[in-house]
Amino acid sequence: MRRFVIGQAKNLIDQTRRRRPQPHHHNNLRLLSLLRPSASDSTTVSSPRLFSSSSSDMPGSDSSSSSSIPVTLDSINPKVLKCEYAVRGEIVSIAQRLQDDLKTNKDAYPFDEIIYCNIGNPQSLGQQPITFFREVLALCSHTALLDESATHGLFSSDSIDRAWKILDQIPGKATGAYSHSQGIKGLRDAIAAGIEARDGFPADPNDIFMTDGASPGVHMMMQLLISSEKDGILCPIPQYPLYSASIALHGGSLVPYYLDEASGWGLEISELKKQLEDAKSKGITVRALAVINPGNPTGQVLSEENQRDIVDFCKKEGLVLLADEVYQENVYVPDKKFHSFKKVARSMGYGEKDISLVSFQSISKGYYGECGKRGGYMEVTGFTSDVREQIYKVASVNLCSNISGQILASLVMSPPKPGDDSYDSYIAEKEGILSSLATRAKTLEEALNKLDGVTCNRAEGAMYLFPCINLPQKAIAAAEAAKTAPDAFYCKRLLNATGIVVVPGSGFRQVPGTWHFRCTILPQEDKIPAIVNRLTEFHKSFMDEFRD
Amino acid sequence: MALEYDSLNENVKKCQYAVRGELYLRASELQKEGKKIIFTNVGNPHALGQKPLTFPRQVVALCQAPFLLDNPNVGMLFPADAIARAKHYLSLTSGGLGAYSDSRGLPGVRKEVAEFIERRDGYPRPCASYLSYHSDPELIFLTDGASKGVMQILNCVIRGAGDGILVPVPQYPLYSATISLLGGSLVPYYLDESENWGLDVNNLKQSVAQARSQGISVRAMVIINPGNPTGQCLSEANLREILRFCYNEKLVLLGDEVYQQNIYQDERPFISSKKVLMDMGSPFSKEVQLVSFHTVSKGYWGECGQRGGYFEMTNFPPRVVEEIYKVASIALSPNVSAQIFMGLMVNPPKPGDISYDQFTRESKGILESLRRRAKIMTDGFNSCKNVVCNFTEGAMYSFPQIRLPPGALQAAKQAGKVPDVFYCLKLLEATGISTVPGSGFGQKEGVFHLRTTILPAEEEMPEIMDSFKKFNDAFMTQYDNNFGYSRM
């Protein structure tokens, strides 16, 4: 019944809204405060970036409406309309159309294939999976193989041992059953042991929540933290748009902090403080700080000293630290090393009571790049038991994450060891992929830096380059005439001329007036020279066309 | 502490999900202490010993380890049709199981799903390309289990507490939990237990009128067919009434049809909402918005751990489909091995295929045994004191009503428990049978139920029902007597 009462209040509000056009959020907030007596009155919240795209008319959806069908663009959840996810946005749709057309219309284009550099999807560009991992997964997928003698001829002996070990950890050896909503306990034990080996500090399997990729974990935390647009999350700019999209879907406020491109995308504590104060003055309660390390799309690897300052900042300000550490295996420069935030916090002497920390890991990245498996976990530390119960409850509504993703997540945290049958081939595959990625990162970065008006920081880690393009005024004017962001204009031209798909910097947000694009370093090494050539040629002709 | 319980999103705190709630946690504790627990709380067939179908597991194993396909000895371990099918599915991917697919799922699998729907509903694919299809792959989205799909659609529909969703009571708590998480309003309609959990359209009208009078804009209706937890199968006539009702009231119909393979009687075979809608013709077939959900977790597949499912939208405007696609794209893609399971489910081995006989034997064996178990369970419950139970026509559950004597209600109150929770906890402690109290699904006030799956192994079934009866009858005697004494 309580629902009905709330509903009644809300509906009155909806009716008021319907009577007048309502282009921005201020009214929303006042109305919301009617519903939430706890929310302190505020009329000053404004986050222009976040709300600028909201222009939906308020819906008329009940039977008095003129529309003949219930769900139309005008009557769907406005938060859905507001969120954006450029990694799979307009440019990718154009690319897919071109790819279809290429099949029948080859001669119409100056290129013969579409090269997807828009998304960190290594195996779609020819990266091979790690053999040992897939052997174990195949055996777990069809356990009858374990009873066949012929299996020993086709599979490595340690993959067979490992499959047995994993099956013994699954109740009834049932890989087709829902598991515990946090993931199979034995697999979480393996992950916790892997974290301990990585950090040198203990990890508790009960802190691990296994998820279908890292993204659902991020959503879960946003759902927990955000009640309204008065709740803010500090996010790096440029950022991976999962964060902006998830915050928009949950109706919160993204509080930006800018990374400093001039110092290699450095993260300045003074900037965090400034943005935090700014948000507070607008009536926003900042609940958490999201840090992506190594950075996406920016590729920087944080120094340990910087990380200590970040931990101290969160502790002092009472912020949850959301540490996106999915690229922890992807570090390409000898002068940088990955350190988990948990290790940094523990080495500073901070324990459970001092800082709330969530670390996200995924099987989609690293040298394994198993995107299609949808596996990952979050390690949740420094939360009270009643909060953790809520996390568990939300996880349980979705029952559990997929089992092969869970198995793979445990494998990447406990790969073959020296002496194992597969160890040598495993190391060769792993090193081969990582060193090739480092080479590709270097080659592409150098090529980009040679282009007129382009500067590009090195990719210390992750899978992307994020060059800054100094676009001529003429190009900016042409983009405006085409009603598109200047960097999107550039990227569309690039796609049409070369078949190379990249994501405009505006999809990640950037310092206003600067223009970037994100390009993965994932095309296979033998394709890189051709990509460099095409890119160089295109850029030259683009600049020739638009030079001021 | 950065995050206090008090400061959490209220919608999260409000949400309840009993299938994995107090009873389940207590059962897990007891199991750790070494007690034998029979988990009948979740429809999780493989956890209770059901064996996976061989053919799909062979195909997926080959897709997991595609290098096997190049090995000259692969034929020693895998039949030729599994090898051919693995090659087929790998050819539909771009980068095998390890690459993100299209956010809606692999186009080739979505096409197989569309063809399945057309075959199932008796609307064969027209030959001429200008004729419209009955089922369009562009309107089919593959998901990590059906639950994810339900969440995506409800997220699109619910704008705030003023938006109501009609949900059957008793219901599968995914719906109440999701509506609560999204901050919408659940508008209940009661199924009639005395009419074998029938759905009376007059009840629907009342529920909608009442909600509207309270200022709620009712936007969608959920049906679960076959019913969870109630096990009833909807008749074609009933589905027509429901669709007409949705048309008149401008409601989106969410058809939860995940149990469509699980039918245990012959009077009412499964008929899809989509087929009934198409049969009704214009204007209904052109205007009623329908979303149908399906999964690989149920049926004779029971592949819960794969997290595979799909939903099909009917009469959704392209721009709304675009928005749903956008939200799906934030999650990148559903897991690819489950997409292949879905392909295999909608396109199983055909007569003449090497694996056909084995596949048929396995799937028939499972379904026939489930049918027998449904009967053993209903009969078992009906032989117990103060227990009445409708027959499980479909799905995987039995939902007996437990008529608790006043003495039991009093004891529950003293223990600070909801009466059916009290009963189920006692049942668990005494017998190891882990059930879900009816209050987790919603029920009429003062009426109590429990939900148990019909999934324990057939040979264990008589013993389970015996131990249930022994517990129940003793419980009833104890509390009847206590009450009697206290009155004296």
TrEMBL record, chain B:
The keyword Transferase belongs to this UniProt entry's keyword annotation: yes
Cofactors (names): pyridoxal 5'-phosphate
Gene3D superfamilies, sorted: 1.10.287.1970, Aspartate Aminotransferase, domain 1, Type I PLP-dependent aspartate aminotransferase-like (Major domain)
Domain Aminotransferase class I/classII large residues, every copy: 81-466
Full protein name: Aminotransferase class I/classII large domain-containing protein
Quaternary structure (record): Homodimer.
Family the entry assigns: Belongs to the class-I pyridoxal-phosphate-dependent aminotransferase family. Alanine aminotransferase subfamily.
Family matches, as CDD domains: AAT_like
UniProt pathway annotation: Photosynthesis; C4 acid pathway
InterPro entries recorded: ALAT1/2-like, Aminotransferase_I/II_large, PyrdxlP-dep_Trfase, PyrdxlP-dep_Trfase_major, PyrdxlP-dep_Trfase_small
Keywords assigned by UniProt, alphabetized: Aminotransferase, Pyridoxal phosphate, Transferase
Organism: Brassica napus (Rape)
SUPFAM superfamilies: PLP-dependent transferases
Lineage: Eukaryota, Viridiplantae, Streptophyta, Embryophyta, Tracheophyta
Pfam families per record: Aminotran_1_2 (PF00155)
